[in-house]
Amino acid sequence: MPPAKKRTRTYDSARIRTAVLAQSGAVRDAVATLTPDQLARPTRLGDWTVRELTAHLVMVLGTLHRYLGEPEPARHEVPLMDWPFATVTAASRVDEDTRAVAGDGDTDLGELFARTLSGVEESLAEAPDARLVPSRFGAMTLGDFLVTRTVELTVHTDDLNDAVPGLDVPHDRQALAACARLLADALAVKAPGASTEVRIPPYAVVQCVQGPRHTRGTPPNVVETDPLTWIRLATGRTDWKTALDAAKVSASGERADLSELLPIMG
Fold first, then answer.
1. pTM to 2 decimals?
2. What is the pLDDT of residue 213?
């Protein structure tokens, strides 16, 4: 018999909407406290300072507000699981757009973020999940696009905390869960198989990597890590060896080395 087709994960609409708004609210509150010196700090994102990073977070929300204000596309083009692999193709455009939002230093990013979030709250109120919205990569359903916002917001909240010691922007639990799950599922798409089990408690377990399939009990190849370490690995914020050496990842079995499969998103 052929292997069973993997079932696409579904996300609870109300929880995802709440998560996007909750994580955005936490970022808004933190951004409002940033000083000029903090905005000028470097980040782990190339030559972006905290100012560019903050501008990018504004853009993450702003695209949602803008897309909902545009005519609905004629057809659905981008399934959710295509999105993680498409993002690398837009890196240069994202950088240009981010710098345009950041401006020359006179823009009050705290006020801009708060105003953008207010617009998002209004535009989401009447928009159904099935509505198609344009994106950089093609038309997606609003429900799927909101899941991608949990990834953007969670990843860049972690970037912000890394760049500004003591800022400690909290991670919304549902946003963190959705982000970890989508990136785990993307790993399973990138390396299909059932020889290795990747565990990200308490949010996700996926099987991946070709090889002997286990049918019962503990699989021979197991990787386990916490959600933030997984997200950093999947997005290139840390590498496999560093995480292993710091005991942030446990890996057992000859097919438990994921170094050649990471990162998933650049």
1. 0.94
2. 67
